[in-house]
Amino acid sequence: MKISVIIPVYNAEKYVANAVHSALHFKEVYEVILIEDGSPDNALQICIELAEKHERVKFFQHTDHKNHGAGASRNLGIEKSTGDFIAFLDADDYFLPNRFAAEKELFKNVKIEGVYGALGVHYYSEKAKKQYYRLFGERLTTVYKKYEPKDIFKGQLHMLGTFGLFSIDTLTVRKEALLKMETLFKPELQLHEDTEFLFRLSFYLDLYPGIIDQAVAIRGVHESNRITKVDNREINPAISRAILWREVSNWLQSEKEVSEDIRTHVKRMHRSFEIAKAPALQKWGMIVRYLFTDYPSIRSGLYNINFRYSLF
């Protein structure tokens, strides 16, 4: 295997070296591609030093040297990659020694286009743990049982009950299989761009479970995480989720092979978060408006109001 590990780097001077070293641990990692995304801290200099020190580390920036977001940075990394497989890693996260143990065996089957695993969590400080334990706890981010590839898309859309989810950090895909996707990451999405990408990826590609009962990578939680900045009690996280589901709904309009039950479900998810994000008076007005026409959306909306701080 020749794996290209793509790491978007923004404001991660304290963590990026650890991420890189965790990837270089594997002989299967052909290259580590750092995309420095206009960081305000000293991450740029650290990326330069890592590339100078390690032959397998390659360093790139956007042509204007400005911040473009994680989605655009991952797209640039894919464009610059020369490996046969693509894996992703956030700059404040890191791989564990078993990261590619299942992949080495599964990818011997040429029909397998992607493999996913389980993600653990590490709190970089007691303050981060105190603030964000309610989001991540100590639990694995994983798919709870082994599913056939045909079910992964519906599972991620929350149509199969207690499905779980997998992270971009635990995904490995054949680079040539990505050609099935007209669009990779959507740069216009500043949050949940990885979730939206995984939705579409599981629609176009056959994805298989690797190690899902123990962590193969670790999410590093600290006070400056993008997700923790948004998912706190000062900001309504339903706003970014409404944008996510609107984007998914718009995409499905161009896919003729998608069944009507999926289209209806996605519309309801979008509508439910639109209800959840609304101010109190507007919220109840929206519920009344849909009262006799779309009860499932109201039910979902009330669920998302009550559990607005859940991850998804």
TrEMBL record:
Domain (Glycosyltransferase 2-like) ranges: 4-166
SUPFAM superfamilies, per database record: Nucleotide-diphospho-sugar transferases
Cited Pfam families: Glycos_transf_2 (PF00535)
CDD domains assigned to the protein according to its UniProt record, in alphabetical order: Glyco_tranf_GTA_type
Residues passing through the membrane, by range: none
Domain of life, source organism: Bacteria
Keyword tags: Transferase
A GO molecular function held by the record: hexosyltransferase activity
InterPro entries for this protein: Glyco_trans_2-like, Nucleotide-diphossugar_trans
Entry keyword annotation includes Transferase: yes
Listed PANTHER family: GLYCOSYLTRANSFERASE, UDP-GLCNAC:BETAGAL BETA-1,3-N-ACETYLGLUCOSAMINYLTRANSFERASE-LIKE PROTEIN 1
Name used for this protein in its record: Glycosyltransferase involved in cell wall bisynthesis
Species name: Chryseobacterium oleae
